[in-house]
Amino acid sequence: MNTNADLLNELRIDRSPGPPPSRKWLWIALAAIALIALLALAGWWLFARDKAVPVETATAVSLAAGNTSASVLDASGYVVARRMATVSSKITGRVREVLIEEGMEVEEGQVMARLDPIDADAQRSLSAAQLSAARSEIASVQAQLAEAEAHARRLGTLVGQQLVSRAQYEQAVATRDALRAQLQSARRNTEVAAGGLRISDLGVDNTVVRAPFAGVVIAKAAQPGEIVSPLSAGGGFTRTGIGTIVDMDSLEVEVDVGEAYIGRVQPKMPVEATLNAYPDWKIPAEVIAIIPTADRGKATVKVRIALKEKDARIVPDMGVTVSFLEKAPEAGGEPRRGVRVPATAIVQRDGGEAVFVVGGDDTVEARDVQAGAMIGEAREVLSGLAPGETVVVEPPAGLAEGATVATDTQ
To answer: Which of 315, 324, 345 shows the shortest CA–CA distance to 217?
Structure first.
């Protein structure tokens, strides 16, 4: 049993120092604070990133930069020749020789082939003989007429002296007049025979096939021994031509332009042509004419384009892509003012037209502009925008002044 003294000793305060505190909990607290700070920083970064609106941008291009012309329309077509002919003979005949080959250059009037001239030569010989006979008849009638005229003159003298009868004199005069008429007829027959000889000469000449103009042979259609005819005989053994030649100086381009875009094309409009075979070669060209009719099946209008460069690499039926260019300012004229931007960058805002301009800190500024005419897929901006500034293409409906954007340059 404890005494009172023992109880009092138990109630005494122990003032001796205890064991030192552990540092484990201090490091845990510091690590927790650092983790919270990192999480807060990551959350702020993610929140700021989500605020940036992804947009597509484009740069405003000066309309007077380098006096270059912008494309207002692109189309495709083919190289064609305005002067191309499949040369045939004027008559039906058998080919004796062919003097052309593919790729050969021919001059106007150059002989391309010859037909067998046997029939034509025989006809010419007959015509020449007929002309000779007609001329001989003239000589015979002239001799008879000279005698008849002399006889009529003698009888005229004698009838005045009443040495011959009037009937004899009148008979001599009639004979003279008949011979005069016969001489006139013989001369007419001679003219006819001469005309027949000329026709026979043409028949002989028609056996020679000549080039109608200077050009290059692109096809050889007949061989010696074959029958050629200017008309189709309906069978497979008769040729209708000797060969095909093309005047390379007459090459041009024909393209089909959709009806919806034909209003952008004008005569004398500058064009840049690119052959599919030579994609790096830009050929200057010009619109010749717009054919005033449309293809109802394709809903297109044909446009003729003249090539300003002549080159052996350009051949008929080549595929070509053309860009119709807006007319460049004349030399010495005042350069065009304003810039060109994609048409989709211009939006309606407060009853006017505006663009969203991207600043250096990736924030956008809504700016009112004065828009002009369309230039292909682009549009003129006459005021309110400077060359080199960046604009938002197809701005989202919710894009507002001062918004941060993530740009993707066009």
So the answer is: 315
Report the b/e string of 101-135 with b at 16+ CB within 10 A.
Answer: eeebebeeeeebbbbbbeebeebbeebbebbeebe
Q: Which fold has domain 118-204?
A: Helix Hairpins (1.10.287)
* Coil, strand or helix at 290: strand
Pairing label, strands 405-409, 53-59: parallel
Nearest to 283 by CA among 293, 273, 292: 273
pLDDT given at position 50: 47
Burial of 93 (0-12, 13-18, 19+ CB in 10 A): buried
Q: What is the pLDDT of residues 174-216, one digit of tens each?
A: 888 888 888 888 889 888 989 889 999 998 999 999 999 999 9
Q: How many CB atoms lie within 10 A of CB 24?
A: 8
Strand partners, 352: 349
Residue listed under structure tokens 């003012």: 337
pTM recorded for the entire structure = 0.57
127 φ, ψ (degrees, to nearest 5): -65, -40
What's the CATH architecture for 53-67+333-409?
A: Beta Barrel (2.40)
Give the SS3 label for residue 23: coil
pLDDT in tens, 247-274: 999 999 999 999 988 888 889 999 999 9
Phi-psi region of 268 (alpha: psi -120 to 50; beta: other; left: phi over 0): left
> From 1.10.1040.10, 3.60.15.10, 2.40.30.170, 2.130.10.10, which CATH number describes the 71-82+249-325 domain?
2.40.30.170
User: How confident is the model over 7-15, as a mean pLDDT?
Assistant: 56
> What is the DSSP secondary structure assignment for residue 257, as one 8-state letter?
E
Q: Does domain 95-116+207-246 have CATH number 2.40.50.100?
A: yes
Residue carrying structure tokens 């080039």: 211
Identify the pLDDT of residue 11: 54
